């Protein structure tokens, strides 16, 4: 996933007491302090990570396809090239995640398959009807995925975490989408109302497909609620979804799309 | 463009007398011996190269879009990923060509625009109706483009030639297409007849769109027939098309698609 601009950062970054003795973040504990070889000895943790990598890999491949498709709606060759660039970046993320699955001895296709229906469903339900809807979707999808990657990273062993953060911390391609959408709203303010509805629908579909995945995939869900990590209770996954939704709402307001 | 496998090489590679004194190829003469700064002083040569880079750049961008679209027809996730990989490679070729246009002070969009109609026309006329047609198109398109890049490279100044050959000499992505098509024909030989017709249609459309470009773009055509390069007469461009067509026919036979 591509990174957000710094002003997009969700406001739940870990806070440390800023005293003179607290210059470094607290050392990781539990799973986060282990490397892959150690953590993967727990078969449930291993299954959860395979699920996660499979879901992220197919998510990137599906995003590639959608962005390439939406590039056709571009009004200019420059815009087309920008969306194609985002698509190509997603493909490279896909490659890294797929290669990691192969590295740990998993068949990438088998790891991705459980998530095909939910992700294809999301994209089918949210096919943009025009260029601006496509841009808002690219930006929203990018941002939500970044938030999710950051959230999940803290529950991972050090090797998997490094991969997830590397894929996330690529570049901020979505900035151009923001510029274009803002300019369109400035030119015709009524466009903003329509796009605000669209952004709400995107978030609604994303949440409903996530629910489906959480309900289907035991190992992954258990990891998300902290069952095999440390210090998370059942309410934690609900809070995570709330934080992601809130960050989304703030970004939409900043974009001129009042919810 | 991606390179062909060595067995695919057209048989018109320059031959040198293989005597003991002839260990190196003859030194380039004329334009081919000049760098960009020198060659571009001729405004007609400059216009021809801008045309060429614009045509190649939009060709790569359009190929990206088509391959990404055709990836949807893939029967498996692995096949989808392979086609997405080819698409992503085309996007990177596009980026190099576009950046070169910007480097020499040309507006990339303006350089590409004259070729949009012909390339979009080609893709519209040859939208594959299924996965195998998509694969044959990917392979044929890749190979014809490689042949054309090689042919045109010898008429270019050293800097432009290096770029064109670098874009060409990327990797042989099309090998997987060949494997898949061969397996499908082995499994059901009648498929071969249908795909042979399809390959002929692809070549026909490619030639007819090329004619259109040649008729429209004076500077580019003059370069192709040798007007601003050296040692080529008017018949040469016809011979070039013949060589490309012949190489195509040989490749199709090797693939089990008798013309």
TrEMBL record, chains A, B:
Q: Where is the Ferritin-like domain?
A: 43-227
One Pfam short name: MiaE_2
Q: Where is the composition biased (Low complexity)?
A: 15-29
Record-linked InterPro entries: Ferritin-like, Ferritin-like_SF, Ferritin_actino
Spell out the residue ranges making up region: Disordered. Answer: 1-29
* Name of the protein this chain belongs to: tRNA 2-methylthio-N6-isopentenyl adenosine(37) hydroxylase MiaE-like protein
Q: Which organism is it from?
A: Streptomyces galbus
């Amino acid at each position: 996933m591509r990174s957000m601009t710094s002003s997009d950062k969700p406001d739940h970054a870990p806070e440390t007491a800023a005293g003179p003795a607290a210059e470094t973040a607290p050392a990781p504990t539990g799973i986060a302090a282990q490397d892959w070889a150690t953590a993967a000895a727990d078969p449930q943790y291993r299954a959860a990570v395979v699920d996660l990598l499979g879901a992220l890999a197919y998510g990137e491949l599906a995003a590639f396809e959608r962005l390439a498709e939406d590039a056709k709606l571009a009004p200019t060759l420059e815009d087309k090239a920008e969306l194609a660039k985002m698509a190509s970046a997603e493909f490279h993320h896909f490659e890294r995640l797929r290669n990691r699955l192969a590295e740990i001895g998993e068949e990438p296709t088998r790891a991705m398959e459980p998530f095909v229906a939910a992700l294809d469903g999301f994209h089918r339900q949210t096919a943009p009807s025009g260029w601006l809807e496509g841009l808002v979707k690219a930006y929203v999808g990018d941002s939500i995925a970044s938030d999710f990657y950051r959230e999940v990273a803290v529950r991972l062993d050090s090797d998997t975490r490094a991969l997830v953060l590397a894929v996330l911390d690529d570049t901020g391609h979505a900035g151009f989408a923001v510029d274009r959408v803002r300019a369109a709203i400035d030119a015709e303010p009524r466009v903003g109302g329509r796009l605000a509805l669209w952004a709400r629908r995107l978030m609604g579909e994303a949440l409903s497909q996530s629910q489906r995945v959480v309900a289907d995939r035991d190992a992954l869900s258990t990891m998300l609620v902290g069952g095999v990590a440390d210090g998370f209770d059942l309410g934690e996954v609900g809070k995570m979804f709330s934080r992601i939704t809130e960050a989304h709402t703030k970004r939409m307001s900043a974009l001129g799309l009042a919810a």
